[in-house]
């Protein structure tokens, strides 16, 4: 049975995690707690910029950390969907995803389930106004195979979600995230609505320590937020 993760807007990141060294740009990152049961938070827009405009830059937008895992081996594949828009077509943004496992306190990297890809540009982000559904990781490799990893009780999954820039313009790519909507984004790259939940799904059944219940949110509607550098 697959395990789907959501990315609420008001669940505090449970532990501090240093981003992977594969990200060239980490100056503007929204962090939080990844959950497997929707808690009904309002959707928000997080913005990161490919500040140097150097082709090949990886810019981190979202860093989310799971609840403590039970001891298990994680393998299989990963796929997901996010609604994304870039401000300038010359940014040439496309999906980038890194999936790691860290110790319970976030200080030690146990291993990398999915490393940053080096694929050429494809499935470029929609140019605003508006947002368009994109696969996460990149459609060309999705569902992507995970590197099998044995994890210890108390370890945590880390989802690092962002984009790769193939262009020469330093501009923003906007990612909608949150889990307040009634339905999830479909598996396509044509849906233009942003009022559906983004998600990332591992093909295996992921087990957690205990049965920690998500903290319910008081938010009921989405708010767009632009963060400036």
In short:
With 229 residues, this protein is mostly beta strands. The protein has no helices and 15 strands. The protein is globular.
List keywords for this structure.
disordered C terminus, mainly beta, single chain, 15 strands, Jelly Rolls, 229 residues
Would you tell me which CATH topology applies? Jelly Rolls
Strand-residue fraction?
Answer: 35-45%
User: Mean of the pLDDT scores?
Assistant: 88
Radius of gyration: 16 Å
Relative helix content = under 10%
Classify the secondary structure makeup into a structural class.
mainly beta
Shape: globular
In the CATH classification, which architecture applies?
Sandwich
Poorly predicted residue ranges? 212-229
Q: Count the beta strands.
A: 15
CATH C-level class: Mainly Beta
The structural domain count equals: 1
Order of helices and strands: EEEEEEEEEEEEEEE
Number of helices: 0
First and last CA, distance = 41 Å
| Major sheet size, sense and barrel closure | 8 strands, mixed
């Amino acid at each position: 049975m697959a395990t789907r993760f959501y990315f609420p807007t008001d669940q505090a990141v449970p532990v501090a995690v240093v981003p992977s060294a594969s990200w060239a740009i980490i100056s503007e990152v929204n962090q939080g707690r990844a959950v497997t049961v929707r808690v009904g938070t309002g959707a928000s827009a997080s913005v990161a910029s490919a500040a140097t405009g150097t082709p090949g830059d990886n810019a981190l937008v979202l860093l989310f950390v799971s609840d403590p895992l039970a001891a298990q081996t994680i393998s299989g594949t990963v796929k997901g969907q996010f609604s994304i828009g870039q401000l300038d077509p010359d940014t040439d943004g496309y999906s980038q995803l890194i999936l790691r496992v860290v110790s319970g306190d976030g200080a030690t990297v146990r291993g990398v389930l999915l490393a940053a890809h080096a694929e050429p540009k494809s499935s470029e982000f929609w140019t605003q106004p508006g947002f368009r559904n994109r696969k996460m990781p990149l459609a060309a490799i999705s569902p992507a195979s995970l590197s099998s990893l044995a994890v210890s009780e108390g370890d945590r999954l880390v989802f690092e979600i962002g984009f790769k820039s193939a262009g020469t313009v330093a501009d923003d790519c906007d990612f909608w995230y949150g889990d307040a909507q009634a339905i999830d984004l479909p598996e396509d790259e044509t849906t233009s609505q942003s009022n559906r939940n983004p998600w990332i799904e591992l093909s295996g059944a992921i087990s957690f320590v205990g049965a920690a219940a998500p903290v319910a949110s008081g938010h009921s509607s989405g708010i767009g937020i632009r963060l400036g550098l």
